[in-house]
Amino acid sequence: RNTVNVPVNGWAAIRLVADNPGAWVMHCHLDVHITWGLAMVFVVSNGPSSLLSIESPPLDLPQC
């Protein structure tokens, strides 16, 4: 599940519906590959409704 086997020197095309806002990492199942740059991040924007949007931070959240 959620795995795509790719042959040597091959590639795969992935179609997905991105409806959960936030930053989502996609990477190989071998952790060492992340340090080799074989990972990516999907940045999903807020949707048209509050159910498909990230909540705003609280007003009393300290600034960095």
The helix tally amounts to 1
Query: Helix-strand pattern, N to C?
Result: EHE
Question: Order of strands across the widest beta sheet?
Answer: 1-2
Overall average pLDDT: 85
Number of DSSP E strands? 2
Instruction: Give helix % range.
Output: under 10%
Q: Label the structural class.
A: mainly beta
What distance separates the N and C termini? 40 Å
How much β-strand is present in the residues?
A: 15-25%
**Shape verdict:** elongated
The unreliable regions are none
- Rg measurement, Å: 17 Å
Largest sheet: 2 strands, antiparallel
Describe the structure.
It is found in: Secreted. This is Laccase 4. InterPro entries: Cu-oxidase_C, Cu-oxidase_fam, Cu_oxidase_CS, Cu_oxidase_Cu_BS, Cupredoxin. The protein is mostly beta strands. It has a domain of 35 residues. The chain contains one helix and two strands; from the N terminus they run E-H-E. It has a two-stranded antiparallel ribbon with strand order 1-2. The longest helix has 4 residues.
Topology, pairings included?
Elements: E1 22-27, H1 32-35, E2 39-44
Antiparallel strand pairs: 1-2
Keywords for this structure?
6% helix; two-stranded antiparallel sheet; 64 residues; mainly beta; 19% strand
Quick rundown:
This protein is mainly beta. The chain has one helix and two strands; from the N terminus they run βαβ.
